[in-house]
Amino acid sequence: MSELYTLEKKTTDAAFPRGPGSTILSTDRLKVVYNKYLNTKGTISKDKIKINLIFAHGTGMNKSLWNYHIKKLFEHSQSASTWVLNSVLSIDAIGHGDSSLLNEGKIGWVYKWEDGGKDIIQVVKHEQQSTNEFVNNATTKNILIGHSLGGYMAVIAGFYEPSLFDTIIPIEGVLYMDPKTDGRFLGIFSKLSSILIDKFNSEKEYNEYFTKFSIYKSFHPEVLKDFMEDEKATFIDPETKKTKFMTKASTPNQMTTYYSAGLSIPLVMAIFPQIKVPIVHVIGKNATWNPPESITFVRDAVPKEYLLDTIDIPNAEHLVNGDKPDVIVKIIEDTIKKRVATAIENRPNDPEVKYGGNKSKILTSQWDLKMSIIAEQQKAAKAGRKQKASKL
C-alpha cells in the first residue's frame, strides 16, 4: 500500500428505480461497491486546486483495474505546483466485482446502461453527503473517467448531473451504433459468450485462463495482477464439496450487459447535443470494437464548446486502458493541467471566492448582475422593434 493515500472499500445503495427487467423483482434494491483512495497529506494548500477522480470500468472488468493508474497519478501529484490529487473513487458496476456478490439473486435479465450512470451519481452524492467531499466548485474539480461501458456511463452521468462533474473522459466509450449493422454486435457477443469462463477447478486454472487465454492477457502485468486479485472468488462445489474458484462477474451477468447494448446506446446518441460538461474523447487508432463512423459521430454531435479535446492513441486497441496504462495516465494528467489552468483563471471571479463566502454580498452581486443583463436584453429588444418599425 502506498504512503501517499489510504484505500477503503465502501458500499452504498444503487440507483432506484431501475429499468424493467434489471432486477428479478421490481422491489429488489441493489448495492454498489467502490474503492476510495484518499490523500494522506491532510491539510491542502488553498492556493492549489483540489482534484477528485472517479473511474468506471468496462464490461467484465472491476474497480481494481484502475489501481495502477491511480497510484501513478498520486505520485505525479506530488510534484504538481498548482493542483493536488485529493480523492479518487473506483466503482464496481452492478453485476461486476464485489457489487455482483452483494447483488446475487437480485440481478435480472436486462441491464440498462444508463442506470450505471445513475449509480455513479449515487456514489458521488453519497460521498458528498457522508464526507462533504466531491463538491465540484471553483477550488475543487471532479473529473470522471470511463472505459468502454464505463465511458457510456460517464457521459450519461454528466448529462443527468452536469454540475457534479468538471470534465468527462470516455476512453473507447461505446457511444454509437448503426441500426443497419446491429447484427455486427450480436455476432461479437455470441463469440464472446463462447470464450468466457467463470468457474475453475483450481487457482492455477484461474490464473492460466487470465494470463494465457482471456481477452485481458495483453494487459500491463501490474494492471492484470490487480484486476485478477480483485476478481477472484471461491465457492463450494455442491457435488464434490471441494473449494473451487470463480470470477465475481458471472458469464450470465457479463452477457446481460453486452446484450443490453442495443437497448442503451440510442439514448446516449440522442443526448450528445445537450451535453454541458467538457469532454475529452479518447480512442485507440487500431481499435475495432466501435465502428469507424462512431468517431466522427461523437465528435460532431458534442457541442464544439464542450469538446475539450480529441485523442487518437497510436497502435492502441479497445482495451487500451489495460494495455497502455501509462499513456492513459498521461492523458488524464494533461487534462487535469488544462482544467486547473482554466480554474485558476476563473477563480478570482467566482462569487464565493470573490466575496469570501459572504452570502449577502454574493446574493446582492449576482442579483445586480442578473438585473443588468435583463436590462441590456430589454434595451436590445426595444432597439430591434424600432428598427423593424422604421422599415415599414
TrEMBL record:
* Species, as recorded: Debaryomyces hansenii (strain ATCC 36239 / CBS 767 / BCRC 21394 / JCM 1990 / NBRC 0083 / IGC 2968) (Yeast)
Q: Which Gene3D superfamilies match?
A: alpha/beta hydrolase (3.40.50.1820)
Supply the name of the protein: DEHA2E09240p
InterPro entries, from UniProt? AB_hydrolase_1 (IPR000073), AB_hydrolase_fold (IPR029058), Carboxylesterase_BioH (IPR050228)
Q: Name one Pfam family in it.
A: Abhydrolase_6
**Residues annotated as transmembrane:** none
User: Which residue intervals define the domain AB hydrolase-1 in the entry?
Assistant: 53-330
Question: What is the organism lineage in this UniProt record?
Answer: Eukaryota, Fungi, Dikarya, Ascomycota, Saccharomycotina
